[in-house]
Amino acid sequence: MGKARGRIRGETRTSIGARRAVLGQIARYLLVGLGALAMLFPFGWAVITSITPSDAVLAVPPDFTPEGASLDAYGKLLETLPFWRIVLNSAWIGAASTMLQLITSAMAAYAFARLPFPGRGALFAVYLTTLMMPLPVLVVPLFIEMRTFGLVDTYFALLAPTIASAFGVFLLRQAINQVPREFDEAAVLDGAGHFRIFLYVVLPLIRPALATFAIFGFMASWNSYLWPLIIIKSPEFMTLPLGLATLHGQFTTQWDVVMAGSVISVVPILILYVFAQKHVIASVAQSGLK
Amino acid sequence: MSHFPGSRNAAIATVAAVALLASACSQGSATRAPSGADGKATVRYFTFSAAPDHLKDLDTIEKAFEKENPKVDVVVETAPFEEYFTKLQTSIAGGTAPDAFELNYENFVTYASAGSLLDLGTVAGDGDTSVYAQESLNAFQQDGKQYALPASFSTVVLFYNKDLFKKAGVAEPTADWTWADEQAAAAELTDRKKGVYGDFQPVQFFEFYKTLKQAGGEFLSADGKKATFNSPEGVKAAKWLVGKVGKSMPTEAEIGGAADYDTNLFKSGKLAMWHNGIWQFAGLKDVPFEWDVVVEPGDANKASAVFHNAVAISSGTKAGKDAYAWARFLSSSNVAATTRIQSSWELPPVADQQVLSGYLKDPKPANRQAVFDSLKSIALPPVIKRQQEMQDAVTKQLTEAAAGRTSVEDALKAAAADVDALLG
Amino acid sequence: MTLTAAPPEERVTHQRARPRKGWRYAGTVAVFLLPSLVPLTLYTIIPMLGSLWTSLHEWDLITEMRWVGLGNYIELIGDPGTRAAFLHTLSFIAGYLPLVYAGGLGLALLLNRAPRSTGSGRSLLRGIYFLPVITSWVVVALMWKWLLNPASGIVNWALGLFGISGPGWWTDPAWAMPSVILASAWKDLGFVMIILLAGLQAIPREYQEAAMVDGATAWRRFRHITLPLLSPSTFFVVVISLINGFQVFDQVKIMTNGGPGGATQVVVSQIYDLTFRYGRAGAASALSWLLFAVVLIVTIIQIRGQKRWVTYG
């Protein structure tokens, strides 16, 4: 989009229709606010269910000011599960898998976006195809493979399928494609090689995309259920979704405890999101794109 | 690449980091290799029935076993029932089947005919099986061979809210009740304005095969090669179940997909009669109303559903004898039986009435005897090789009828065709 | 299969910088690619080939595999259940994709244009819109089932105020898929929003300002500046949503479990049931490869077509 670039710089902004803008602003806030309320609703609902005594969780219609509200469910959660161990497992596996994915995906994305080589399009297509196979059909062959490597019931087996992410490669490749090429060319003229350009030019410019991907990478690991279920046997490797699933019995389920667990499980991702969000804004402000 | 020396270093560093990570992670497993160096044999036991409420009870039994058998180390692995078989199948496919594992009666045939189970006769020695209730033991035989030991069972009874009966002035159910009595009472007890329902019985496979037997019908032909439930008795049974929906029982739309809707409805005192299993006893300890149980009403016959769980041993195990010792201990030892009874963790399938009588000591519900009475005429679920597909097909067709999208007759006809195809 | 993964003008630019000589960068390329290519091969591509092998067998996971050649494929192609599953999946995508893209774009635009002074309020709002994305499907499904409860749900109550008698939603075969679509679009709005927002933020502000000076209307600015410059993000959202849409499963399993009367049995539900519940891992693998072929064709068409509408900076 080189045509539009540089057409204006430093020209003053006109303020036509300032009043209409204010009205529009109000309408916009109203809309956004109402939407936000609708988004908050399920979470509030889960919190309420989790503090409602178990014999009063009759869901239709839900009581938003339940009598005898208590944190019993949270107590039960800590009692029935080695909760902190489980959270710790999930947290470090999530962090490790996010870091690995960020590194491997960003590097591959750079290659696909900036390094011409024969068969690049075909190889990228191969990457994409790995997203097209449904997981339920992959877990059995993958389990057999892990068994041949002697990796069943290990932390590594939990991590292995998340080291590389075609989703991440795709996302970051799109982001790198949006970075104006003039930036790397300037660096090339300064004598920088691809590693320098990657590290010092491209990575800082795609920080918003990296932050976004970090959240998705962490979420994928944090919520993953089927693969950990299959590959993990020892309770000491248990992750959060596995732990919560043990609350479902053959005939009965403690729904208030399940809800308490679901509520707690959202918190770390929320913190990560808020953290990443700050980072996104800061980096956009710094990146010189504005 | 030569123009930038950093690239090779980066490559080496990356490879080294990945290798380091891999070795660090896999080392964790090497130190936890099975069968410890102290000469102990390890028995890996996989179970679904302990979590979430009875892990401590299983632990008690395990400790007692290891005390008696100091050379055996039992390692328990659990999974929720929903995904238990997913995990079990995958581990068998991958050649890492647990030494001993739990099976319910419905899935027993599938695994026994697949050759996944060890013929217990090969490891039992002169193991005396007279401690087991004979009928339970027989349920886990195939071609005259014992492939699993029954470990626990539960039955389905009719729960009822005494307060609601008193308020409505309806006589409480007795063991002699028939469907007609239940129906009349349910109609009187239902008060939709107050959100009170007279009766709750899920419309699905397990209720259907049982009510079919109550009506005097058979699910499969004697040779097991044809579905025979599309009969006048079958229609009667299905109509009995489907006819409750929207009358004395809420519709699916009213249930609204709420989890544990019926449990909560009963617990909140708004359900008069409830067809459910004895596993609900523990959860009903503190409800603020009087309740009791009675053997389910019959029609042409009395028939009560029984759910059996058993312990089987993998045909590929290297610790067959130790696994058998554990299976035996878990299913029939005194410690196991009393632990199960004390914690209301289903019932031990033992022959000794003395052990079982402990179950009657618990004051709530008063009529615990009904649990044993229900065993006098039990209805075991029909079992075929493609069990899950059969259960799903029958439930699906019944649900269609319950929602009024098809007639009961058409639903049964379609279900019978599906089941015939599965028997193929 | 040669897909043009890179926009044409990029190659031109690059040639200016340094002449292209086939494998000139082989070493560099290897260093950049191997960290992802090796694990991807080991932990995804090899299992994929494993499932291809499985698809040629009858296998219940607990007994030996039995070779059936293309038997599973032939059976599946003639099976009305397969056709129904694909049809349900397509109807999911047809409802979900437009809804989630339009909603996500609307949100991204609203939030992007909020004034700078409310920066913290804006990030709070973004956080709120992102909540459903990170909330588990168990919670979301229970809540939507209650909202859409035909008898006492808030949605039908609200419709009643306008004299409309609401449908049976997820208990009615005709409305079950729309219910799943609604819940899914609602849950994923935040995902689409965050991707598009990142794209919007990458658009230099000067473009908009220049157009404003030129007197372009808001719609023209949106149509001729924002949309084209956002096209890489849109392309990403569309490709990923389609790939994910074809594999829709979690919400269906939790919300309707394929019902009522099989009205929401999608392809992956079918695959899951076949593998783990019905002991037919071979047929499940064959069905996965059929699904794979469909998704691949759709994706190739999109990548081929991107030249026409995707603009890279």
Automatic annotation (TrEMBL), chain B:
What PANTHER family does the entry give? ARABINOSE-BINDING PROTEIN-RELATED, POLYGALACTURONAN_RHAMNOGALACTURONAN-BINDING PROTEIN YTCQ
Q: Which Pfam families match?
A: SBP_bac_1
PROSITE patterns in alphabetical order: SBP_BACTERIAL_1 (PS01037)
Protein origin, superkingdom: Bacteria
Q: What keywords appear on the UniProt entry?
A: Cell membrane, Lipoprotein, Membrane, Palmitate, Signal, Transport
Protein name per UniProt: Sugar ABC transporter substrate-binding protein
To which protein family does this belong? Belongs to the bacterial solute-binding protein 1 family.
Residues in the signal sequence:
1-24
| SUPFAM superfamilies reported in the protein's UniProt record | Periplasmic binding protein-like II (SSF53850)
Residue ranges annotated as coiled coil are none
> CDD domains annotated for this entry?
PBP2_TMBP_like
- GO BP terms, alphabetized: transmembrane transport
InterPro entries, alphabetically? Bact_solute-bd_prot1, SBP, SBP_1_CS
Origin organism is: Nonomuraea turkmeniaca
UniProtKB/TrEMBL annotation, chain C:
Membrane topology term: Multi-pass membrane protein
Main localization of the protein described in the UniProt heading: membrane
| InterPro entries on file | ABC_transporter_permease, MetI-like, MetI-like_sf
UniProt KW Transmembrane helix keyword: yes
Alphabetized, the UniProt keywords read: Cell membrane, Membrane, Transmembrane, Transmembrane helix, Transport
GO aspect biological process, one term: transmembrane transport
Family annotation (SUPFAM superfamilies): MetI-like
Q: In this protein, which residues make up the domain named ABC transmembrane type-1?
A: 86-302
Q: Name one GO cellular component term.
A: plasma membrane
Location relative to the cell: Cell membrane
Domain of life from the UniProt record: Bacteria
Family assignment? Belongs to the binding-protein-dependent transport system permease family.
User: What is the protein name given in its UniProt record?
Assistant: Sugar ABC transporter permease
Instruction: Provide the species name.
Output: Nonomuraea turkmeniaca
